[in-house]
Amino acid sequence: MSRVAVSEVAPRAELPRLLAAVRADGSPVPLDKHLAVYGSPPVRLGGRLIDLVEASGLTGRGGAGFPTATKLGAVAAAHGRKFVVANGSEGEPLSRKDKALLGCVPHLVLDGAALAATAVGADEVVVAVGQGAARERSALTRAVAERTGRGLDRVRFQVAAAPEGFVVGEETALLSWLSGRAAKPTLVPPRPSERGMRGRPTLVQNVETLAQLALVARYGPEWFRELGTDAEPGSALVTLSGAVSRPGVYEVGLGMPIRDLVEWAGGTTEPVSAYLIGGYFGSWVAAADAERAALLDSQLTPLGASLGARTLFLLPGRVCGVVETARLARYLATESAGQCGPCVHGLDAIAGGLERLARPERVDLARLERWLEQVRGRGACRHPDGAVRLIASALEVFAREVELHAVGRCSGEGRVVLPTGTAS
Amino acid sequence: MSEVLRVNPIACDGHGLCAELLPELIHLDEWGYPIVDGRPVPEELLSHARRAVDVCPTLALALARRERVEANR
To answer: For residue A158, how many other CB atoms are within 10 A of its CB?
Structure first.
């Protein structure tokens, strides 16, 4: 393994890493301050970066968790003009981490994007940010100007205002839009590494992945692995919300007990019945189970969950999980790109069934479960699968509430808590 | 080389001709869209499968070599 990237004066391996330079008022860290905290990006690293990333075990932080080095390698092996897309569109309504990074430490993301571009042989980087994220976009635009003024990079940056919407988080939907078509997912293969933006080989990485990569490039894989476990190394940004005193974005070492994170955030504000883990493509987990687990896929998988988008939402015990799930189901049905029949009709039917159940009204639960089974795996993208996963977990975790609803009762107090509008 | 049926869900409009021609391997969901399982098409049904592929009005049905389908997921 190459050692060239390891800085002589690596900062402490503890936390915070990504958020080490963040200012108290959350204003963007200027380039001078950024370089003072982290040192200069190792721009001469070139393709050796891929070996370092491979050794670090870094995986994608957008939700799918794909090994970053594999993606880098695929684009590096492709020929011709290539692009890098830093995906900061963050369509997941419960997530704020990408906006936090872009708004507070834009240079860390740009470092990572520039290093990745050089490693794969691209000289153009598009940073995609949601249209509603005006503050983050202006932070980025200013950061790009700072770097250009300094001649820091060999790549060109472009900041793009991507349309809002859950499905835009699908990288193929984002690439379609960046190529001048509608922001709708396309069938894979071809993968973006073969044919991505404007038909060219494209590296698409979530902005946190790129920020992590910028640190791996500087301080090396051993440093990166000083946090986390062998199988799930490093730190991660987690967005915590719901019935918790200080909701927000936290940087944790992977493997931190969920209970400790909640305590760090000031504890719960009221009794909690369940956790929604991994966002709107994630899973409900009973509070008692979640509070015994750590932030690791190896511990969440047996509970039917995974870290996914790395969001944790704490559902108050007095809020009805069936009503919330019906709202989520309708939101996800509405957010379907509308291309694939089973997703369009199936999610609509499932949402309709759950809405009747939520009212509360008697519904044919066996039929509902058959629909879930029929929709799974039948879209061009993961949208129907994610929705089905979420709803199936709800039927299990809120089984008692489902039974109550089936006989016309609801134990909730009529409050709704999960966001289902466009995130701003 | 064994082949499997593959539906492009974006192209498919649920005309249902495939399920008419090949009920052994294709059935329709409650909304009229074809469900294919990932199993190889048996030798004796290959000609019927090719016919189903040929008549699909939106060219959404295909016979594909197995590894390509697995790479898809």
So the answer is: 14
- Tens-place pLDDT, residues A97-136: 999 999 999 999 999 999 999 999 999 999 999 999 999 9
pLDDT in tens, A192-206: 999 999 999 999 999
CA dist., res. A315 & res. A268, Å (int): 10
The Cα of B58 is separated from the nearest Cα of chain A by a number of Å equal to 13
**What single letter denotes the amino acid at residue B47?**
S
CB A94 within 8 A of CB A309: yes
Record: contact A342-B33, CB cut-off 8 A: yes
Best residue in A339, A378, A381, A383 for a mutation probing chain B (most B CBs within 10 Å): A378
Q: Residue B5 pairs with which residues in a beta bridge?
A: B63
Contact call for residues B40 and A372 (beta carbons, < 8 A) = no
**How are strands ordered across the β-sheet holding A283-286?**
A248-253, A235-242, A311-316, A272-277, A283-286
- Spatial contact of A216 and A52, defined as CB atoms under 8 Å apart: yes
- The residue written with tokens 């005193």 in the block is A245
Using left for φ > 0, alpha for ψ between -120 and 50, and beta otherwise, residue A242 falls in left
